[in-house]
Amino acid sequence: MNNLSGWFVHRSAKLLLYCLGVLFVLILYGSSPAFAADNGHIKGGWYPWKPYQYLEKVSGLRQLTGLDVELFREVFEEELGLTLELPQIAWDRHQKNIQEGTTDVAAGAFKTAERMNYAYFSEPYRKEDIVIISSRKELAARRLLDPKVFLRDFQNSGFKAGVVAGYSYGNDVDEMMRKPQSLNRFVATGSDLENLINLKEGRVDLVLIDRLVGGTLISDNNLSTSLVIGRKPLFSGDIRAMFSRKTTTPALVDKFNLAMQKIKDDGRFNGIVRGYLFPTVLGITVGEPWFLALENIGTAAFAFSGILLANQDRFSLFGAFVLASLPAVGGGILRDLIVSRDRLGFMESSHNLIIVIALVLVSYFVMHMPGHSRFTKITNFFKMKGPILVQLLDALGLAAFTVVGVIVAVGERCEPLLLWGPIFSALTGAGGAILRDVIRADATHPTLKNVLYAEISLFWGFVLSLFVIIYAELNTTDPYPLGVAVFTTALGCFLTRLVVIAKKIKAPSFWRLRRSA
Prior knowledge:
By secondary structure, the protein is an alpha/beta fold.
């Protein structure tokens, strides 16, 4: 009986241990995250990082877009047939989710030794430059825009640098940030925009940032007159997709690499890159103070030419405003209507209309001053020298608006660029003058009949468009080459117009060709 009882207790204990083991396995299995893609879904995330990831207003609705977003959609949804989930999440939290396995993939990542402990990495799919931004007026801080000077002198400079929590800024900077003496020198925030605001308000002296993100934020927030971007990169590195080791497999990473190579081979990759990066790089250039000054001078010149014509033809004050505003913004309105932009360009910034209104009002009061005053001399001067001065300033406006036309064509992804770039340049530069002549009922239509004007915009718009296409093959985000191209285009257009005026070169006449035939 004792033997039977002992056998029963022994067997019961073994059965209990077996059940506990099964229960442990079930609990462990149930608490483990399922592998990504097994259920046809893969989870990522996004954070405000224009032009790579951002919300854009389209037809009144805010939609998630950006270079990395569109590339991931092409790869995961179009090529791999997966449903891509992209909730908004801060980058440092995104990293922790990758580590914990609650998020499967992250875009736009540098490969580091620390991250390799919890993530797989794809092959590089683009490059990224980290640059330094400082205040224009802080000359001592501007000296550290040079990467060599920054790495050598920053720790002993007394300056503070703004960074984003969880970002990698290259091995040299990452190692510097880990040193105890640097703990209070790097101010970590949740976004690049917050860092730039801190820089503008003097809470930090420098900001480390991706070149294109920095240029976009400066342009979108009108900071170009107060902040300056260092030209040389502090760090240049390959950008990869980062996959969680807990929820993905190397096989999925291999599929991602093959799909990314496929969209590169069939041209989809270059189309997405051109649509998102090139408008940003061009925008950085035209956001520089020298180009803004050129555009303002051109707007004023176009407006002043309309004012002189309004005075000549005895228009009312409102009529003068119409004639002044048409050459200044009319061409841009025509261009935007053709391309069906959701928001007309002149509505995004009111400074062009303010220039026109101010110039019309000032001209009105000057022209109606009492006869024997200093203003009479000014009026007489403009009556005698006005046409020459207007032609000179008008040439500057044509140069600036020629560049703007190509930028819009690139930004709206108009293909082929060699066709639409020149057309938009001519519309932006000369379309307003054509509208003005129609309103004036000018039967001579000088812009369409005998003046070599729009043709100059067509030619230089073609030159800049051609350079943009060549730039696409360089695989770089350095805005300097495009900056040189923009400056060359503007200068070439301006000088060409001056030569045409000086030599009195007429436009090719279609009527003469028909008569000779």
